[in-house]
Amino acid sequence: MAIDTIFKALADPTRLRIARLLSTMELAVGELAQVLGQSQPRVSRHVGILCDAGLAERQREGSWVFLRATSGRDNADPVILALDHMLAVAERENPAFGKTCEDDRRRLAAIRKAREAGAEQYFARHARDWDELRALHSPDETVEDELRSALAGKPLGAVLDVGTGTGRMAEMLAPHAERVVALDKNLEMLKVARAKLQHLPAAQIDLVQGDFGELPLDDRSFDTVVFHQVLHFAADPALAIAEAARVIRPGGQIAIVDFAAHDREELRSRHQHARLGFSDRQMRELLRNAGFAPSAPIPLEGGELVVKIWIAARHASPNADISNLSRKEA
Hints:
about 325 residues, alpha/beta, Arc Repressor Mutant, subunit A, Rossmann fold, 8-stranded mixed sheet, globular
């Protein structure tokens, strides 16, 4: 991309704001319009200019289009990386620009909070029949067997079950683990999980209330982290995976069970899915950017929606700044 095209794309206050927002997380055009207080067609025009200049890229999911900064891609253009760094410095050193970016992120936080509240209400309504709802989407027994097999290559050690729900995964993995922490944000879910897991020794299982975007857990305190049908609820999957990377010890592993990319749009409104599954490329980049070495995905095509299992190992000498940077910029 010609350098003059890139600089022309940034020669507008609104596009500078969009660039900084996209450096924080992937966003839909409608969410950007809400944050910026502008019409969606106008924001779409600005987005088009940034995409044409190679500063952003689109990812369609059903009727929604998510946008992300190309600075987060594998092998990102050094010029784009340098510009992203320059804008971060400008936000820090220029009071007026810094305040604008801070105000934008505050409005963005309110939008994210509203979406999370919708998901929490859904979880509370369906806490007791969550197992049955999941069974409608995928063949759970097959998935669980494949997950056990995929994780059998190394000791599980200390396990974190993120978004434990009714405690299915925690119960399944507990016999093979040193200990299990079952984490969920929703108190109703934790009540159900506590009842399901009460037969396990108290020293082996802990139930913790917490958000996968800001885990209330120490760095490098787990050997295995599992996301079972959870990541599609994340407005910012990169943040959730970066947090997982922070709490995994070097050489540990992450297991993500979720839907392959699909177009079942009704899952957004009926079941509060923030993402319509994940492509292998998306997941590979999410994992690599967080300091993992991903293995080949395992597809399970026994249901209407394809389920995949992604396993990745934490690098033995991880870049300590990766997860910290993700948390600071969120």
